[in-house]
Each structure stands twice: as structure tokens, then as C-alpha cells.
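[Discussion] Sanity-checking designs against the backbone

I'm trying to build intuition for which residues belong where. Below is a C-alpha cell string of 337 positions. I'd appreciate it if someone posts a full sequence so I can compare it with mine line by line.
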């Protein structure tokens, strides 16, 4: 672990403020954001920060039943997010795209029971069960969200699969999963949502949770987990060139400087020892909401790091340490997310 820390480096003093993030900040109350991979971890905390600012949030996820090692189902995530809506605490609404008929003038019914799921009462947070590897599922989910909120203003592409192995040990199952979620899934989500965001959003933002392009030149980011890194940089390239293809939309990426207390860190990367030298996922949620609140015409085409965004807003990043007794310089630099 010491060698990893030395390889990836951590230099807090090099953080620079981006003044446009705050100077161009706008109210996002009533704006609608879709989070692919919003059930737990970073995606959930992005949703929390947006909800606290008065935004509408739709989370996409596939966890319907509780899992012993994973936080939240899509239903429990929606319930928790609704509790952060200012002065409002309503029951949740969950849509399962395989069982929906959305042809009845915006009223959504479960086709098996004809149960009226929503009509007059519009919830600020909804969950849509879908698999980003399934384009038809994504498209149905998009239609549900439009029927519920009327429009979609922004998109966060966060869904990701993490399978760490070197070239000779990477299995076909792992390759298929990372390709399906990180590459194909991210592209599917973009393909489904970018047209409506580009055409009709009054606050067009797309934020991709992927590494900055500068990390291409760090060999340590590649040689021990080549396929994972390749799949994540594909997400960054999508943001870079969608920026050219959809000039009306702001595209940015966001990546943590340190490891974040998420399920992959707890279950795959070192357990409690790694968590102890990590930051809370709230730092990513806070940073994302700052980016997504900025003027899309002014803040566009950046590869952001979480603490740089927070420092730009004069937010003390030390509050996000899991263990407040650990010094900033002793935190674990991020290499996976």
C-alpha cells in the first residue's frame, strides 16, 4: 500500500481554484437530473446533493432485492433521497421498465395489475429499474422519466463495473461485464438521453464519473488492470468528443483524488484498512452538485478532481475524511472508482 501511495502521489498544495464554477452558479431548483448508477455510493450521494438543492432526481439501477454486501435497493435509495427533499417527505415511486405501458397520456400503469402508479402527485425523486447493457430498457426508462417530470435537463453517467486483473488473468466474463457496463452501457445511456437534453434542456449538463485524460500517461494506471483502465478511459473519451458532437451541452468528467468509501473499496480493494484512509462519498456528491449548478456555457470540457471543485467553492475538504485523525497527506490516492 505504501508503494501504491508513492506511485500515485498526493499533493494537496497543488489544488487550484476554478472561479467560473462559483461565479456562474445558477439555481437548479426544479431542474431534472438522471443518474445512471444512483442506488448507492457516489451516484447516491450525487443524488442527495442535487435533491438538497431542490432538483428533481431520477435514479437508474438494477438492484431490486437486498444484497448482504451492497447498500440499498432502488426502492430504499429513493426513500432515503426523498427524506432530503426540503420540507417534503413523500412515499417513493418505482417503475420497472419491463412492466410499463406509458401510452396513456402520461399516466403510468403497471400493466399486470393496472394499478395507478402516479397521476396528480408528482414525486421529486423516482427510481427506474433498468440495466444499462439493455438499450430497450434504457429507452423505456427515459420515457417514464419524461412522462413523470416533463423534461430532462442533465445526466450523470456513473454506472460502472470493477474487475481488477492483469492481462493474462482477466477472464472473459470480467471483460464482458466491463465492456457491457463501462463502455457499451455508458454509450447506451448517452445515446438515449443526449438528443432530448441537447434539444430541450434549459440547463444542459452531462457529467461522467471517469478519470482525467492526464492519467493516460501514468503507467501504474494501466499495467496491473489494463482492461478496467481502458474501459474507464473510454468513458472519458465519450465526454470529450460528445462535447464536439453536441455543442449546446456542457460535458465534464469528475474523478476523486483519494479512494472513496464505496462497496468496491470495502469489498475488493482492502476492506476496513483502505476505508480508514479514504474519504466519504459526500465529497463527490458535493463536487458534482457544484459542477451541475454552474452555467453550462461557462463550465464545459473539464476533467475535474473532487477536492479542487470543493476548494473552488471554499468548502473545507478535511471534513470528508473517514478518519479525522488521519492527515490529508496520508490518505490513499485514488486509482479505482
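Best answer:
Here's mine. Compare freely.
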Amino acid at each position: 500500500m505504501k508503494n501504491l501511495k508513492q506511485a500515485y502521489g498526493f499533493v494537496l498544495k497543488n489544488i487550484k481554484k476554478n472561479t467560473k464554477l462559483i461565479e456562474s452558479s445558477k439555481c437548479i431548483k426544479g431542474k431534472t437530473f438522471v443518474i445512471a448508477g444512483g442506488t448507492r455510493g457516489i451516484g447516491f450521494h450525487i443524488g442527495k446533493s442535487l435533491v438538497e438543492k431542490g432538483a428533481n432526481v431520477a435514479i437508474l439501477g438494477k438492484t431490486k432485492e437486498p444484497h448482504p454486501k451492497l447498500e440499498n435497493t432502488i426502492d430504499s435509495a429513493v426513500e432515503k433521497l426523498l427524506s432530503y427533499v426540503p420540507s417534503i417527505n413523500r412515499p417513493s415511486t418505482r417503475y420497472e421498465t419491463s412492466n410499463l405501458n406509458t401510452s396513456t397520456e402520461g399516466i403510468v400503469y403497471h400493466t399486470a395489475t393496472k394499478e395507478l402508479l402516479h397521476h396528480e402527485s408528482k414525486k421529486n425523486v423516482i427510481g427506474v429499474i433498468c440495466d444499462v447493457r439493455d438499450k430497450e430498457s434504457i429507452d423505456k426508462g427515459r420515457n417514464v422519466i419524461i412522462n413523470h417530470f416533463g423534461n430532462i435537463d442533465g445526466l450523470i453517467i456513473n454506472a460502472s463495473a470493477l474487475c481488477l486483473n492483469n492481462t493474462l488473468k482477466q477472464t472473459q466474463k470480467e471483460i464482458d461485464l466491463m465492456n457491457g457496463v463501462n463502455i457499451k452501457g455508458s454509450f447506451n445511456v448517452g445515446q438515449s438521453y443526449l438528443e432530448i437534453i441537447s434539444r430541450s434542456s434549459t440547463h444542459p449538463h452531462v457529467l461522467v464519473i471517469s478519470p482525467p485524460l492526464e492519467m493516460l500517461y501514468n503507467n501504474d494506471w494501466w499495467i496491473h488492470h489494463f482492461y478496467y483502465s481502458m474501459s474507464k478511459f473510454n468513458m472519458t473519451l465519450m465526454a470529450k468528443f460528445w462535447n464536439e458532437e453536441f455543442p449546446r451541452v456542457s460535458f465534464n468528467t469528475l474523478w476523486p483524488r483519494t479512494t472513496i468509501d464505496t462497496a468496491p473499496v470495502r469489498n475488493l480493494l482492502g476492506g476496513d484498512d483502505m476505508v480508514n484512509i479514504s474519504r466519504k462519498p459526500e465529497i463527490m456528491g458535493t463536487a458534482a452538485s457544484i459542477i451541475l449548478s454552474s452555467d453550462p456555457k461557462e463550465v464545459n470540457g473539464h476533467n475535474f478532481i473532487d477536492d479542487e471543485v470543493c476548494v473552488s467553492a471554499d468548502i473545507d475538504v478535511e471534513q470528508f475524511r473517514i478518519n479525522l485523525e488521519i492527515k490529508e497527506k496520508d490518505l490513499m490516492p485514488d486509482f479505482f472508482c
